[in-house]
Amino acid sequence: MLKLTNVTKQFGNHTAVDHLSLEIPEKEMYGFLGGNGAGKTTTFRMILGLLDSTTGDISWNGQSIHYDKSHLIGYLPEERGLYPKLTVKEQIVYLGKLRGMKKAEIIKELNSWLDRFKVPEYLNKKVEELSKGNQQKIQFISAVIHQPKLLILDEPFSGLDPVNVEMLKEAVVDLKEYGTSIVFSSHRMEHVEELCEHLCILQKGKQVVQGSLQDIKRSYGKKNLIVHAAFPLEFLERLPGVVGFRKTTEGCRLEIENEDVSQLVFQELQNKGFIRKFELEEPSLNDIFIAKVGASYE
Ligand SMILES: Nc1ncnc2c1ncn2[C@@H]1O[C@H](COP(=O)(O)OP(=O)(O)OP(=O)(O)O)[C@@H](O)[C@H]1O
Question: Where in this chain does the record put each ABC transporter domain (predicted)?
């Protein structure tokens, strides 16, 4: 289990990470969210031992994490860094050996990943000859080749087409099922919503939301109401309890204070004309993210 207790990182007077505490057990994918500059990469660097925390403690199964534990950890950084002139094989063999693996073992593992990603022909290609998306697959392989117990993925799906996103998602879910603890950062809320049971949202280094996805949604309270109708719906905006209104091609999407407000909306719609859809929805993670940090996303 990865445990961060009251971790703070200061750069001069600037507090990049402010009393961060979290726990990530085995077989768990933890969503780590925040706008630009929120402190995600700084946290990852502290977990990796590349930066020392100013105060607080980071431990893996009860022991402090040091840089010499790097074989335990796999890291896919946001800024990709492969050697363009090396072939895929040379590259991964080099990185695997740094993590204490034997050449034969590395090649076996690499071939199985290349097969899985449907690119076995890339084994002897230079990295610079591959498309950006395929380089991304190789970078992913370089992060998992040594079967790390803890995997840190910073924006793993950026730059990938939808087919490859699905392929990588399946790989990540399998690693989780296999027992890996995964920390996953993304600006794409729907990916986090799909993959993570627990998450936190950072703003200016502080956790403004944390817990299970289900509890976070429940405690947010507000719900969305989708209405499709054959008559104008603007009047709904003025009803008490309706806190947001967005016109859509087929009707509108309301944000309501709580689910009881849907009764009132339903009554107001009756006898006004044909209603094709009336549906109460949980708030999306995107709604919650925008409500909590939207004003200062940049
Ligand atoms: N080495 C450093 N020296 C000084 N300030 C730093 C350093 N590294 C990060 N910061 C500052 O710490 C804050 C957090 O940065 P960090 O890179 O961790 O954010 P992030 O959440 O990863 O953002 P993004 O989503 O844009 O990658 C920012 O205000 C940044 O300017």
Answer: 2-229
- The two three-digit tokens of residue 150, written as one number: 């803890």
pLDDT category at 298 given cuts 50, 70, 90 is very low
How far apart (Å, rounded) are the C-alpha atoms in residues 91 and 106?
11
265 Cα to the center of ligand 1, angstroms: 45
17 CA to centre of ligand 1 in angstroms: 9
In this prediction, residue 75 carries a pLDDT of 93
Q: What's the CA gap between 232 and 160, in Å, rounded? A: 40
In this structure, are residues 285 and 192 in contact, taking their beta carbons and an 8 Å threshold? Answer: yes
**To test ligand 1's pocket by mutation, which of 41, 187, 298 has the most ligand atoms within 8 angstroms of CB?**
41
CA 124 to CA 108: how far, in whole Å?
Answer: 14
Phi first, then psi, for residue 259 (nearest 5°) are: -70, -20
pLDDT at position 292: 84
Calculate the alpha carbon distances from 247 to 169, 228, 252, 293 in Å: 33, 10, 4, 23
pLDDT tens per residue across span 26-62: 889 999 999 888 999 999 999 988 899 999 999 998 8
Residue found by looking up tokens 């879910």 in the block: 173
Contact 232, 269 (CB under 8 A): no
Of 99, 133, 103, which is closest to residue 118 (Cα–Cα)? Answer: 133
- Say if strands 206-212 and 223-229 run parallel, antiparallel, or are unpaired: unpaired
What would the two tokens of residue 83 be?
Answer: 């050697």
pLDDT in tens, 229-267: 999 999 999 999 999 999 999 999 999 999 899 999 999
- For residue 5, pLDDT over 90 is answered with yes
254-267 exposure pattern, b = at least 16 Cβ within 10 A, e = fewer: bbbeeeebbeebee
